[in-house]
Design brief:
The protein is an alpha/beta fold and about 325 residues long. Helices cover about 45% and strands about 20% of the residues. Strands 3, 4, 5, 6, 9, 10 and 11 form a 7-stranded mixed β-sheet that branches.
């Protein structure tokens, strides 16, 4: 079967995939801009080449045979590989001042990296357009959904160039108005009497309160749930409840107070780059900039050891950090 498959021409496979997807010769012919008879002859010729039937024809349309289903799976892999090849070729042909497409989680992208990107562009006079995609899911860099990805889960594709940028430490925060109204919990057990704002995304697990307090109590505690960091911030800042935020939230202008419950969540921050993209000089420069932006020597809160919000504000004054991120705070 494998030898026969290799002898098939790609145009015939393309027609076969369209017919299989649409379950109709006529619809496939209309989509491909050919006559129905040409589509039928193409499939018949392909079946002759492979020496086995791919489709069952009946009055309701067409259905795949078992062999046809196997060919569809193999052909889709080839189709994706061809698409990847042309995407990579497009990268190689871009001019030196072409765009840089970065995918990053919404919280890191909006609240941490955007101010630094602006400063970087102003300081270096960079002419490259930055296309910032704040994605709540991990994008497929290998398929060129982005040139570079900064994400909270380790990429599992060995073909990618990856490096760990640092760690994100999440601490409980609440607004002053919430704490005045409901009091300040002293430990995790006290949380049973409090309201919680929960953020859950493809890259960031929820708080798993059901494992601590049981499903019924956890369901009562969570008063608001969202996937976006900006919505999560505003819910906490406006008094909806207690929620987890990066330990540097106040240092960059967050109008919230740290609620010290003696714990934090730590997640890894990873960078993934397509191997062909990494050859580009402008991408190499931008990767260096991203690495510097999470360097624990300058920003120790991205290091492996936990810093409390109080330690961050003591070591780096709020005024210094706010002036560094000129005109940008979480309250804008």
């Amino acid at each position: 079967m494998e030898h026969q498959w290799r002898n098939a021409d790609w145009n015939s496979i393309r027609v076969f995939l369209a017919v299989a997807r649409l379950c109709s010769f006529r619809k496939a012919a209309d989509e491909l801009g050919m006559s129905v008879n040409t589509a039928r002859r193409t499939i018949s010729r392909l079946e002759d080449q492979l020496t086995y039937p791919l489709l069952l024809r009946d009055t309701d349309g067409v259905r795949l045979t078992d062999a046809g289903r196997r060919v569809v799976m193999a052909a889709r892999d080839v189709e994706n590989s061809v698409s990847d090849m042309w995407r990579v070729a497009g990268v190689a042909e871009r001019e030196a001042n072409g765009p840089i497409r970065l995918a990053i989680t919404e919280g890191l992208g909006s609240f941490w990296l955007t101010p630094r990107i602006v400063e970087h562009m102003n300081a270096t006079g960079a002419k490259n357009r930055i296309e910032l995609q704040c994605a709540m899911r991990s994008v497929d860099v290998l398929r060129m959904e982005a040139d570079i990805s900064v994400q909270l889960e380790k990429p599992d594709r060995p073909e990618l160039q990856i490096k760990q940028l640092g760690y994100l430490h999440l601490k409980p925060f609440a607004s002053s108005s919430y704490l005045e109204k409901f009091g300040r919990p002293r430990n995790v057990a006290d949380m049973v009497n409090h309201r919680v704002v929960e953020q859950q995304t493809d890259q960031l697990r929820g708080y798993e309160l059901d494992k601590i307090f049981g499903p019924q109590i956890a369901d009562r505690m969570v008063r608001m749930k969202t996937n976006f960091s900006s919505a999560h911030y505003w819910a906490v800042a406006k008094g909806a409840g207690i929620g987890l935020m990066p330990n540097y939230a106040r240092a960059i202008g967050g109008d919230v107070e740290h609620v010290d419950l003696g714990f934090d969540f730590r997640v890894e921050i990873w960078l993934a780059t397509h191997p062909e993209v990494a050859k580009s000089a402008r991408h190499k420069e931008f990767i260096d900039f991203l690495t510097d932006s999470f360097d624990e020597r300058s920003y120790p809160w991205f290091g492996p050891d936990t810093m409390t919000p109080e330690e961050i504000e003591k070591q780096f004054s709020r005024e210094d950090l706010l002036s560094y991120f000129e005109g940008f705070t979480a309250r804008t």
